[in-house]
Design goal:
Its EC number is 2.7.4.25. Belongs to the cytidylate kinase family. Type 1 subfamily. The chain is built from nine helices and eight strands. The protein is an alpha/beta fold and 222 residues long. The protein is globular, with a radius of gyration of 16 Å. The relative contact order is 0.22. Bound molecules: cytidine-5'-monophosphate. The site of cytidine-5'-monophosphate has 13 residues, from helix 2, helix 4 and helix 8.
Amino acid sequence: DTGIVVAVDGTSGSGKSSTCRAVASRLGLRYLDTGAMYRAMTWWILEQGIDVHEASTVAARSGEPQIVSGTDPSGPTIHVDGRDVGVEIRSDRVTGAVSPVSTVPEVRARLVDLQRAEIAAGLQGAGIVVEGRDIGSVVAPEAPVKLYLTADPAARAARRAAEEGGSDVAATEQSLRSRDAIDSGRAVSPLTMAEGAVHLDTTSYTLEEVVDQVVALVEAQE
Ligand code: C5P
């Protein structure tokens, strides 16, 4: 396998998804959104009527749903037990519940296994861009290119609110900050800048400028 792995971590709403999809498209790589997998698990847990704060139940049931990621950067997909949940996983209900579900070690172990299988598949071709919170530190520590994307919370909230069609900026900022706090503070695989990662603060750059910088970093590796 001659493909490359590009590991992209960072805070919620730092522009990771748009950046990673554009970079993967430009370089002919696959694209894996691991946040979508944690959201899919959370959607399924909620569907079962399980309390997301009951970690032992979440852990015990986390092996049940079949979660399948489609890794084409022009139209990534996510299915749970054969159902396309691409829209459902972006609901406020799932967004509000995903961080506690993501703290459960059994959930992480299961999803990391699936993520490594997708990375192995991507390496059969040109490679794969993988985005999340623990990609450079835990999922793919051997990745030759690692990035850590952040942005000013107010800028992130404004972007996210615009994406969501003019939802409340202050509420969005509060939700982002709260997810960052849980994601950074958890015991297992906290959000952290991986060793060897390049830190990009995207606050004052356009998407295109960030994409250009990342593409240049990947090309410098090849
Ligand atoms: O990237 P996105 O905002 O969709 O991720 C949703 C949530 O999934 C994050 O807030 C985090 O709690 C969790 N997550 C994680 N590890 C990853 C990717 C996402 O814990 N690798």
